[in-house]
Amino acid sequence: MSLKNLTKILVKILIMGFIFLYLMHDPVAEEQLSLRWTFDADSKIKALTSGDLDNDNYTEIVAVSSKRVYVLDTKGNLKKEYPIKFNPSAIFIADIDNDSIKEILIGSGWMNTTDIKGGRFEFEDIENIKEKEEFLYRITRNQGDIYVIQEDKKEPVKWLEVGEWIRDIFVDDLDGDGNNEILIASGGSNIDYIELVTTAISNKTGNLTYVRDYKEESSENGSVWIFYTNGSLIFSYHTDNIVWCVYSSLIREGEGKAISAGSKKLIVMDENAVELWTFESLGEDYSIKEVLIDDIDNNRINEVVTAFTSPIVSGIHVLDRDGSEIWQYRISSKNILGLFSINLDIDDDKEIVIASDKSIYVLDKKGGVEWTYLLTRDIDGIQVTDLGDNEYKDFIIASGNSLFAYEISKDFIKLQRADRYYQEAKRYYDSANYQDAIVSLTNARYIYSELGNSEGISICDSLLEKINEGLKEDKRGNANSLYRKALSKYYLGEYKEAREYAENALEIYTQIEDEKGISKCNSLLKDIEEALGPEVTTTSITLEETTTTIITDEGEMSSIILILLLIIIIILIAFGLHQIAIKRSKRRKVEK
Fold first, then answer.
1. Which of 90, 222, 255, 525 could form a disulfide with 243 if both were Cys (CB 3.0 to 4.6 A apart)?
2. DSSP-assigned states of every residue in 275-290
3. How far are the Cα atoms of 185, 453, 461, 464 from residue 458, in angstroms, in the given order?
4. What is the DSSP string of 210-247?
5. Which residues of 136-152 are buried (b: 16+ CB within 10 A; e: fewer)?
6. For the segment 445-475, what is each residue's pLDDT rounded down to a tens digit?
7. What do you get for the CA distance between the two ends of the chain, in Å?
8. pLDDT at 54 over 80
9. Rg of the chain taking only CA atoms, in angstroms
10. CB neighbours of 493 closer than 8 A, spacing ≥ 6?
11. In 3-state terms, what secondary structure has residue 119?
């Protein structure tokens, strides 16, 4: 191969590489989130939360790996760490001993296998068994405990033995007595190992023989547990499926708090574990992995938001307080790794944040997508919180052994707000609500101008032209209506009303520079004036003023009345003479 051909091939490869990088590059995504800091743990991070642990008005981030608990400040610096010797599965920060200092609650989960003593078949018992019999010789059960970390302790202390894999922890004052209760969602898979023995009489020897076989039977269990902070059980609710999540909040004003738990279906119960209603997801393969209760649409009524997963599709349901679906949103993913209702951009509305695989989805209160962000790494856990140095929220993402803190771009948030105002203006325009369209469009253009976004300014100006044209057509329609009324009154001989309608129509036609409308109004007004003839411009107000301020003598009043009568008589005589002259003229024409 010649050097020239080799050079051409290398140049093509470089060009294709640049094209590939350009296509993979997402400038908008880069503008959405910027990396603030990272933190590396000793092993994979399995649980993540945030909160103000020490009441200093600053958020701490708490991450739990397979070996340690890490407490970080808002800049990602390590404040404390604790060694652990269990498999962490859930975490929550709350004050459980009423000392105004929060504790870290950590749930654990593992599978425990036990051999059943005497569970296997023994040959000497062959004569005592039936033709077929099963022997349970081993079991595997999911297990879990709750550990607590207090500020003055060097490591977590086992606080509660639950007996099922801990999936979620939530702390709330359920009964309003000023003391918190602890809510736990738990459950997992169980396996029974069974030996099957079949006996028979041998055809050759006539002796009793047997055949061994083995099988495994799998099942699930799940529970919701409510404990006092001293560890005593208030009540428990059990089901045949894993309970993945638990949450409590008011659903109806004036009623107690509702407890929501997600399994194959959503179960909503009162504080006494009485079932209020359930919501079935989309099928047997679906599980509800996250749940929250919040007023997401600012109507002062809480909604229930659930995140569901399946082998094919995932998403969220938004339900009203009676369990009826308001809307749903689906994503092509098998996992939901976080669900939040939070005001990201300091406007009047909350956003719903969903984390799944490598993506973050931000939805508005009606289920519309405000924006999405695609990471280059898998999301194993997420927290949406305020790291304290600005008015916008931040994303803390766990991926593998590391934490990544992302800041939402201020300019991006402004751009999203401008885009929303613009879309709102378009909707108003489409429904011919031009006044509200102008208000929304003015807000959008102002923000685009602040950002120096020439494209945004251009589309606003283009829409404004359409709105002005719409307003113009509205005004033309109004003027046409007034003109038609003026014509109607004119033909009925109601000339004064006709003149008023025509003058109002003329004013609008003049505003919108409609020459045809101006011309026809002027023509009609001329006809009206001719029909009215000369008018005496005497009004009741002038008469009253004359009566009260000028005329003080009855003789003068009588003189004025006489003069007016003489004028009226002269006008009538003149009119009569005019009619006589017309008749004489017609008669002469006939004679000729």
1. 222
2. EEEEEE-SSTT-EEEE
3. 53, 9, 5, 10
4. EEEEEEEEEEEEEEEEEEETTS-EEEEEEESS---EEE
5. ebbbbbbbbbbbbbbee
6. 999 999 999 999 999 999 999 998 888 888 8
7. 121
8. yes
9. 42
10. 531
11. coil
Determine contact, residues 419/379, Cβ cutoff 8 Å: no
- DSSP-derived 3-state class of residue 35: strand
Q: What is the pLDDT of residues 247-291, one digit of tens each?
A: 999 877 667 788 999 999 999 998 888 889 999 876 678 899 999
Q: Which residue has the tokens 């991070």?
A: 45
3-state SS record for 394-433: EEEEEECCEEEEEEECHHHHHHHHHHHHHHHHHHHHHCCC
Identify the three-state secondary structure at position 304. strand
Residues 6+ apart with CB under 8 A from 576: none
CA distance 407 to 288: 29
The C-alpha atoms of residue 324 and residue 394 are separated, in whole angstroms, by 32
Contact 290, 307 (CB under 8 A): yes
Q: How far apart are CA 397 and CA 178, in angstroms?
A: 34
Rounded distance between C-alpha atoms, residue 313 and residue 277, angstroms: 25
Is-contact 276 268, C-beta < 8 A?
yes
Angle 380-416-22 (CA atoms, 0-180°, nearest 5)?
Answer: 65
**CA torsion sign, 484 to 485 to 487 to 488?**
positive
3-state secondary structure 313-370: CEEEEEECCCCCEEEEEEECCCCCCEEEEECCCCCCCCEEEEEECCEEEEECCCCCEE
* Helices 410-430 and 434-451: angle between axes, nearest 10 degrees: 160
pLDDT digits (tens, 9 = 90+) for 21-42: 333 333 334 457 889 999 999 9
The per-residue pLDDT of the chain, averaged, comes to 83
Euclidean distance between CA atoms 401 and 41, whole angstroms: 5
Helix (H) or strand (E) holding 508, with range, is helix 495-511
What's the CA gap between 321 and 253, in Å, rounded? 11
